[in-house]
Amino acid sequence: MTRTDEIFRALSWVVALGCVAFLMLPIVITVVVSFSDSPVYTLPPPEWSLRWYRSLGERSGLWDAVTMSLNIALVSTALALVLGTLACVAVSRGDFRGREAIATFAVSPLMMPGLVVGVALLQFFREIGLRDAYWSLLLGHIVITLPFVMRTLLASMSAFDFSLIDAARTLGLSYPKAILKVLVPSLAPAYLTSGLFAFLASMDNYPISIFLTDARNKTLPIKMLQYLEEQPDPSLAAMSSGLILLAVIVLAFGARTVGLNRMIQG
Amino acid sequence: MNRITLLAVPALGFLAILYALPLLMLLAKSVSTADGLSLAEYRSFFADEHNMRVIWRTLRVAALTTLLALVIAYPTAFAMSRAKGPWLTVYLVAMVLPMSLGVVVKAFAWSILFRANGALNDALQWLGLIERPVRMLFTETALVVGAANVFLPFMVLPIYAVVRQLDARLPEAAASLGATPMFRFFNVTLPLTLPGVVAGSAFTFSLAVSMYVIPSLIVGERQQTMSMLIARSFLYLRNEPLGSTISAVLLAIAVAVVVLSSIAARRLGARQ
Q1: Chain B partners of A8 at a C-beta cutoff of 8 Å?
Q2: Which domains are assigned to chain A?
Q3: Coil, strand, or helix at residue A187?
Q4: Is pLDDT larger for residue B179 or for residue A222?
Q5: Residues A119, B206: C-beta atoms closer than 8 Å
């Protein structure tokens, strides 16, 4: 290794550490602010307290939004996993022309402007007379979760040995059973990863949801932005810290079962 | 036709009806008026200087955000590919954990930092880099920094995926043949990692060009981006023709990014 190599290596290490600090900064700020005594956001906090955690109980609107978001995210992710599995098996095994074009189409919603998709869905639902906010949100969120699932499952199924399915069928399993008992378990990391990212994307979606909510059905990001505009006290930081803790637990579980590296790379 | 092929029908049918069709209807609406097809909306949209400024600002912010993210992500991906054990865990957690913090809260955390009496100004003064507080919130620089922070994992992970697969023996082989480090980087390492760079940049750019929550919390209405104009025209102004027109323009930009990046990916794939 030459000197230049060593300099490059040291430089990349410094940038990487800076990158970690940069990425963690908003999390640190949110957690610190949540333990502050002051109702305005001063850093560092003048006094420490748990009052914003205590006040969370009184913010019933916030909790309604949390349940709503969890409901939509879980159901839309589950449906996306089912639809995605069927489609990916078809694309990997069926006779398709333009397999790549189909894959590009199925993944493309990830790169389309959310607000435009939201507006288009709003006008479409109006046209067909769908007025129910829950169903509009659910259908809209499958457009968000399905591409995440398709992207990861397509990649991992292209490496899957489908003769295992044939073997399972000669042993007497029906095709659906063979998929469920052989393919899904052996692709468990891909299911976990794509499910997690799809879930998080749905939980965090603002631009599509904003056009599909009504006064009673509000998802969490929409409620949070509204809350920030009306009453920006740190109870939002307290709730976010709770969600961060939840994410840490999920990550620790994922790291133990499939390993972080495999989880992130699908 | 193979029966298995039919399994694709539910998912593709869903996307065709609830994604492709609504977008096509939006496009159709943007060119139709009471008396037939017309590009009048577009003509008046592009004639308005304010709209042109919004488009340029949106593209400039997205390009700068992508560039900043790339400059940070590229060396980081290399450091990650060499990291082992707890260090690798630190890097991976730093990539995934921020995604659990909603974009609303993340953007708000940045707006706290950027305030005139905020922590960033205090820190810079303490370091002696500035003498008195500078205005950061509501500036384009603040927006680019905040946006790069939110989208950074989407730039790092595709590059990391490619760098991890990189055969370390190739640059070494080049070195043993007498190639200088610079030559090796530009002729061996960079071309081999380009697919990751293209994938990460395309994804980051398309997220940045259509972001809405981040600019509304960091720069506000004073410096509008295309997404803010869309939200305003639909939610507050109730001006649907204007909203549909900007939506179509933003959609065209996004489609162009998808098409160009998949062409670039295919070219790079064919070359190797």
Answers
A1: 181, 185
A2: 59-265 (1.10.3720.10)
A3: coil
A4: A222
A5: no
